[in-house]
């Protein structure tokens, strides 16, 4: 199954799929109705009309063949059947270049006439008067009947199609208007969810659209509010605990400094230094979370400024400018942690910037011992220090990669570890545009 991603939702794609879902059934229904109407209903109606005119024509044939001996009266036939006929039709009167010998359902009419009369019948339509001429042999003579076309064939069937098309267009227009409203609401919801996932605010976002879309929007807003409250509580707790512990920690350090130095005292002082470093990181993280707002800034410039702080031996390659939106202090802290980790465990570090179509990537490579692929996820656990060559004889709290990944995911991106072209470890930080 393909994994669903918010960035896969685009206005053009969603609108096209929605229109296809609406227009395709309407077109299919219209085609089926037209086929049924013409193939079944209209064809059967015209066949019945052809049979009816064939019966009337047989009376004219009998009259022209037998005359008064057939017991038929010319005036009675003309008035009773509401048609005009002659038993002595001239060739020139019938074969006119303006007449149409083939028209809608003309074959059906010819079949019914020839089946009833048992003689060949020539049919022609005068397009100017809409009168139908039927010419056939009768008793050694040539009879011709002139009758209105609408009496022989149904000619108003196209009105049905016109009304169906008008009604279908009306329904499609209503559907398009409705879908526009719903698609706009869904796209707004996707945009808001994407923004919330990247740590951005959308103060003008309001639930709209169908009830289901409104419920989904309210659920997203509620989830965002809960996550925000949780983050604020965690930040406040870290800041409070870190601040409260600094005073007793300082007293302990002062007390140890006044004692006679021994191996135990030095070990205790080392432990206190590690605790102090942890508290400093907590306070830095907490202060950054509280005061850092999402803005649009130049990521490439920020990374190069960070690299300069580590010295000229940190090389940065890639675009000179990459515009992203996020919290600069948090991203600066994350990139600083990545470069600092690389410098702790290696003699060479390199930073590569990549500006992709959907996101910007920051690759930090080193030539250190690296981390086994099976244990790379463990490196992101808080306070985790792997007992390998990469972490031996090094100081730290074990929070650098954890906070860096939290920062990346708070911006809608991620942080991954892989093999480096330099032979060590590559840390890849991705930030969506």
Automatic annotation (TrEMBL):
One Pfam assignment: HisKA
Catalyzed chemical reaction(s): ATP + protein L-histidine = ADP + protein N-phospho-L-histidine
Localization per record: Cell inner membrane
InterPro entries: 2C_sensor_his_kinase (IPR050980), HAMP_dom (IPR003660), HATPase_C_sf (IPR036890), HATPase_dom (IPR003594), His_kinase_dom (IPR005467), HisK_dim/P_dom (IPR003661), HisK_dim/P_sf (IPR036097), Sig_transdc_His_kin-like_C (IPR004358)
Domain of life (superkingdom): Bacteria
EC code(s) of this entry: 2.7.13.3
Protein name: histidine kinase
């Amino acid at each position: 199954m393909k994994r669903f991603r918010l960035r896969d939702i685009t206005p053009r794609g969603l609108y096209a799929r929605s229109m296809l879902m609406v227009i395709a059934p309407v077109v299919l229904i219209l085609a089926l109705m037209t086929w049924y109407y013409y193939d079944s209903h209209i064809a059967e109606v015209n066949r019945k009309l052809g049979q009816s005119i064939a019966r009337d024509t047989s009376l004219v044939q009998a009259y022209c063949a037998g005359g008064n001996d057939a017991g038929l009266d010319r005036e009675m036939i003309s008035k009773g059947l509401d048609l005009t006929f002659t038993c002595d039709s001239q060739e020139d009167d019938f074969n006119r270049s303006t007449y149409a010998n083939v028209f809608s359902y003309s074959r059906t009419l010819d079949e019914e006439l020839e089946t009833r009369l048992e003689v060949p019948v020539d049919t022609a339509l005068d397009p100017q008067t809409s009168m139908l001429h039927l010419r056939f042999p009768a008793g050694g003579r040539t009879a011709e009947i002139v009758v209105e076309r609408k009496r022989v064939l149904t000619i108003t069937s196209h009105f049905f199609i016109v009304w169906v098309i008008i009604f279908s267009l009306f329904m499609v227009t209503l559907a398009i208007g409705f879908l526009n409203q719903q698609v706009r609401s869904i796209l707004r919801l996707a945009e808001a969810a994407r923004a919330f996932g990247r740590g951005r605010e959308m103060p003008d976002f309001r639930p709209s659209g169908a009830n289901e879309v409104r419920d989904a929007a309210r659920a997203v807003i509620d989830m965002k509010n809960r996550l925000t409250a949780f983050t604020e509580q965690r930040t406040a707790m870290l800041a409070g605990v870190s601040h409260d512990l600094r005073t007793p920690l300082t007293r302990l350090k002062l007390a140890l400094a006044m004692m006679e130095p021994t191996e135990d005292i030095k070990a205790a002082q080392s432990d206190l230094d590690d605790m102090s470093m942890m508290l400093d990181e907590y306070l830095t993280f907490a202060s950054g979370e509280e005061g850092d707002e999402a803005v649009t800034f130049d990521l490439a410039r920020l990374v190069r400024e960070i690299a300069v702080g580590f010295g000229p031996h940190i090389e940065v390659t890639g675009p000179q400018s990459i515009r992203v939106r996020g919290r600069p202090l948090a991203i600066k802290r994350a990139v600083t942690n990545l470069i600092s980790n690389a410098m702790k465990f290696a003699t060479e570090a390199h930073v590569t910037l990549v500006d992709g179509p959907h996101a910007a990537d920051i690759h930090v490579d080193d030539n250190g011992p690296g981390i086994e692929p099976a244990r790379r996820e463990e490196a992101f656990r808080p306070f985790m220090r792997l007992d390998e060559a990469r972490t031996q004889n090094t100081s730290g709290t074990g929070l650098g990669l954890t906070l860096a990944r939290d920062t990346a995911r708070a911006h809608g991106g991620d942080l991954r570890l892989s093999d480096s072209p330099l032979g060590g470890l590559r840390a890849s930080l991705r930030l969506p545009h």
